[in-house]
Each structure stands twice: as C-alpha cells, then as structure tokens.
Design a protein that fits this description.
With 162 residues, the chain is α+β, with helices and mostly antiparallel strands. It is 15% helix and 27% strand. It has 3 helices and 9 strands; from the N terminus they run βββββββαααββ. The strands form 2 sheets. Strands 1, 2, 3, 4, 5, 6 and 7 form a 7-stranded mixed β-sheet that branches. A two-stranded antiparallel ribbon has the order 8-9. Strand 8 and strand 9 form a beta hairpin. The chain is globular, with a radius of gyration of 21 Å. It starts with 11 loop residues before the first strand and ends in a 5-residue tail after the last strand.
C-alpha cells in the first residue's frame, strides 16, 4: 500500500457540486433505481464521483434509503465499471453484487477523502461471498483434500493421509 494515500488520482469531486456535467449522448443517471444481482431495488443513484484530472466518473454514490429489501439507510460507493445501465427502464444493474456486498461496503459521507485504503475496502467488500449462497463448484477442494484420500486403488472415504 502506498504511503501517499491522497494522490491526485484519488482527488474525487461530486459531479453535482462541480462545474462539470454529463457529456451529450450519455445517460443522466441521477435518481435511477439501482438493482442488485437478484434484481432487488437496493437504492437510487444519489451522486457521481469523478476525477477532475482524468474527467472520468469513478464511483456511483448509492443511496440505500429507498430500497425493497429493508436495508438500513446510508450511502455507499459503487465502482462505475461494475455497473450496467438499463436505458429502457432507467435502472442501474449491479451484476454479482448482493446484499452481503452492500452491507460490507464503507459508508460514504459528503467530502470524504477517497484514497487507496478506501479503494481496498470497496474491493474486499465486493469480493465477499454472498451469505447463505451455495458454494460455487471448484471454489474449495474439500473432496480432494479432506473427505476423500486417493490411493492407487481409488478414493477411500475418510482417509486423511492420502
């Protein structure tokens, strides 16, 4: 991790508080519903954070006050690159993002400095496995390492010494 956590790459501004605006032919997503991987409404687009230096949006600020699944109120940051825009229905979809991920995200407050530590917190939160989700095949090798040992004749249940 860098010792300089306030590099220019992390000096982000709220779009609504700046002299900038969305370029022509791009959707104005303020107020759009945001849906998780299960198509639940998890909130609305409250703000966009962008880098003045690169003039690119980095994060959507998701306001979870208006949601269909009883999430507590709060605002969290969603990296813009994981969002999909449903232009016909004015929705932002977050494929692969579940309630488990949203609850693990750090809360955002206006003026908060976004640095490498914040980026890491967000990355870790979005990588969390969904609570109570089935284990994806191949994600752990219990069958290969713990419950079944392999010998020359095949697999033997309960042999931990293979």
């Amino acid at each position: 991790m860098s010792s300089n956590n306030n590099t220019s790459a992390h000096k982000l501004q709220e779009l609504s508080e700046s002299d900038y605006e969305i370029v022509d032919n791009q959707p104005e997503i303020f107020g759009w519903d945001v849906k998780d991987t299960h198509n639940n409404k998890v909130g609305e687009v409250y703000e966009l954070l962008f880098s003045e230096e690169t003039r690119k949006v980095r994060y959507i600020v998701l306001d979870m006050e208006s949601n269909d699944i009883d999430l507590e109120e709060g605002r969290v940051l969603i990296p813009i690159e994981i969002a999909q825009f449903d232009l016909e229905n004015d929705n932002v979809k977050l494929p692969g993002v579940s309630v488990t991920n949203l609850l693990a995200l750090p809360l955002y407050e206006k003026g908060r400095v976004i640095n490498e530590d914040t980026d890491d917190e967000i990355r870790i939160a979005l990588a969390k496995a969904e609570k109570d989700a089935p284990i994806p095949p191949g994600s752990i090798h219990v069958a290969q390492n713990k419950f079944y040992g392999k010998n020359e004749e095949g697999f033997i249940a309960g042999d931990d010494n293979a």
